[in-house]
What does this fold into?
Amino acid sequence: MTAYPQLHMMIDGERVSGGDRATHRVVNPATGETLGELPLATNDDLDRALDAAQRGFRRWRHSTAHERAAVLQGAARLLHERADALARIATLEEGKTFAEAKSEVGMVAGLFNFYAGECQRIYGRTLVRPVGMRSTVTKEPVGPVAAFAPWNFPLSNPGRKLGAPIAAGCSVILKSAEETPASALGVLQCLLDAGLPPEVGQAVFGVPDHVSRHLLASPIIRKLSFTGSTVIGRHLMKLAAEDLKRTTMELGGHGPVLVFDDVDTSRVLDAMVPYKFRNAGQVCVAPTRFIVQEGIFDDFVRGFAERAAAIKVGNGLDPVTRMGPMANARRPEAMERMIADAVARGARLHAGGDRIGNQGFFFAPTVLSNVPLDAELMNEEPFGPIAIINPYVGQDDMVAEANRLPYGLAAYNWTENASRQRRLARELEAGMVTINTTAVGGADSPFGGVKWSGHGSEDGPEGLEACLVTKAVHEA
It folds into this structure.
């Protein structure tokens, strides 16, 4: 595939576009050039999607586990076959490197294959009762799901939103980000081509507040799944609460990284610097606050800045690029504001801090140290290529800083002390904790946070469970 695809919505199996609909201009963040015009849903479009989802649920809830598994496995095969084309589209839309985009394809295929097996393990149980009485507990699909996915992982976010509900027997209306529509449509198309009934999977786009209010006002929708900022998550939860809809919320983070003086500093830097700047730092679980023990602080800052300055920034389709542009014009502006605020308050700038070039949305990998706690960067998720490195005396102070903020998505730790490792695993307030690794998840592992980072999980058996309701049946 060499050309960007024609954009559309997918409603009841029909590619919907044209007419008098408003459109959204999809832009290549590496060049600023227009890729295509995306049609935005009208009220009639949304009502039609709701009607299809209702019919789709009535049909799909009675599908067998074997039928659902066959669709998911078939979609996984198609994802592998179309991997290069899908990865190229994601890079054009979002800016990340082609290698990162292609890894997303593999992640979605792995998740679909995992759920193909997991949907055959939706077990109930029989309770012990007197002779002549029978009591059972069963699991049933929750109902049609409204799923909202952001732009930063244009393939894997839609894959997460679609995989678990389809495995559970639900229908889905996917509202993915308007910045990256073709990627989401590509994932859905793999499911449809693998045999998913057209009324089971819908994809709509539009003004986010309009779409969310319309879908969540409908009694047809029984579950909301959202990935995005805490501010928007709160708003959507209020809308969902009106009808007591179930919610899964994967919200913002401000990932702490605790680095103790018993580690090999070079090993930590070799792992964490590329991980920090993947996808230009536009990652909900990105390591952001590096909480470093004083004894190794100076060496750590120096090594971090040297590695950050050496990162090749450019078009994600160029094989030598290691970090692409930011996804939209809003992000470099936010980086400039946050960095200026931190420096004005006394922070030290060691690398980056500026835009790169005069086209696209490129921003240099940035390293700051000694950032005061009252700086905006220390309290609000930067969602960009900024690493904050501050010194701390010992474990108690380091844990206190890690837990200081109301966010609790991912927390990273580097130490060789076994007893400390166990204590950190207990004391850190996060939904996901790593020790001496950057591996924060997998298809079989729950992905989600605590506190302001949301509730519920995607991936793993827990992601499927979130799309099921429990029913007890008592017979005499």
